[in-house]
Amino acid sequence: MGWPSEVVNLVLPLFLLLELGTHCVAVDRSSFPPGFEFGFSTSAYQVEGAAHEDGRGLSIWDTFSCIPGNILGGGNGDVAADVYHRYKEDVQVLKSLGTDVYRFSISWARIFPGGSARHGKVNPKGVQYYNNLINELLQNGIEPFVTIFHWDVPQVLENEYGGFRSKRIIDDYSEFAEFCFKEFGDRVRKWVTVNEPSIFATHGYGNGKNAPGRCTTNGGNCAAGDSSREPYIVAHNLLLAHMRAVKIYRSKYQQKQKGVIGISLYADWYLPYSSSKLDVDATQRVLDNKLGLYLDPLVFGDYPYSVKQLIRDRLPVFSEEESKEIRGSFDFIGLNYYMSSYVMDNSTSSDPTRKSDIASNPGQDAPENPDIPDTFATTTRKEQTYVDCCCGHTLITSSGIMVTPSALAFTTSTTPTMIYDASQKHLLFGFNRQ
């Protein structure tokens, strides 16, 4: 179905107030075009808490966060922001800030403690919580925007068959997704199937920094894994799960519920460190591997040529039918944009890992004297234009500004005014699309 004609941007944070020394300027709703939607975004494990209450099952994040050294400071999501108990207060805060849309994820293990119906019944208290949250949002004039999967695979499915390392996950995920459509779709009009699949695959199975903490044992602190293969297997199964959920929604629910469905991709932008052909080609490899790996199948039905050439037999293959079905399986592409990085060629690496496959070094410190404000604003525009050209409907589903020196390419000469100008251009000009 077509996307509404109004501006389709969702930008975070809602309002920006930068206090940089004595330089203080407010950016508010009047600074944006009419129809611009403002929102906040969270994920279940990060904010809900109540990890062991009301019948919720364990997810891979519960297990991962209990292992010493995995989480900075030894934290976990047992209590988190306690949104499970305090959602009414939180909705009032959102309302006071003038929020139009609130994007949140549904905990798979809170709905299906056993991961699927074959392992036990649906948890009615979990269902009631999300019904209560959705109703509370609507009563306060805030649109619910639901993410179905935000990295929290039920631990029982991880134990049973390896979670997203197995194609068996597609049936269980589809069951969960359809339950959400059936139970909440009468009030939810915007759906994201998967949030940032690239981060889940790379950090969960490439370097082990996120749950379930798998990677090649000689390449990190992981008990098991294969950094050269598992990230691509997981990516492939995530895409197939997305495809199946969209097919179910379109065939059984969309016409009646009149909603839209898409996917949110981690979409940082990359710039060549120099104008050399090596660095320019390396930058395209990074884009193909980090964004194109997920975007190209949705638009063209297959992985980018450069990725297939680099990964070869380690990259799963779409069947003819899968290629046909996954192409166009979205009403919108959500972009989660946070920063831009410079890329330098590193084509001499021979160690096959998820990182070395791109034969590049993204994240380089900036060349001398970069134009920080213009670069930061321009790359936001380039990101959206890049995706718009191939898929047409984009939505900023998350955004922020990294403030570490290397991320924003700050130098010792950077001034508060430069930082403010960069932020203003990032928010006011980078996302405007009408």
Automatic annotation (TrEMBL):
Xref: InterPro entries: GH, GH_1_N_CS, Glyco_hydro_1
Superkingdom: Eukaryota
Source organism of this protein record: Nelumbo nucifera (Sacred lotus)
This protein's UniProt keywords: Hydrolase, Signal
Annotated signal sequence range: 1-26
Family in the record: Belongs to the glycosyl hydrolase 1 family.
Any one Pfam family match given in the protein's UniProt record, by short name: Glyco_hydro_1
Protein name as it appears in the record: Beta-glucosidase 13-like isoform X2
TM segment ranges: none
Record bears the keyword GTP-binding: no
Keyword field contains Nucleotide-binding: no
Entry's Gene Ontology molecular function annotations: hydrolase activity, hydrolyzing O-glycosyl compounds
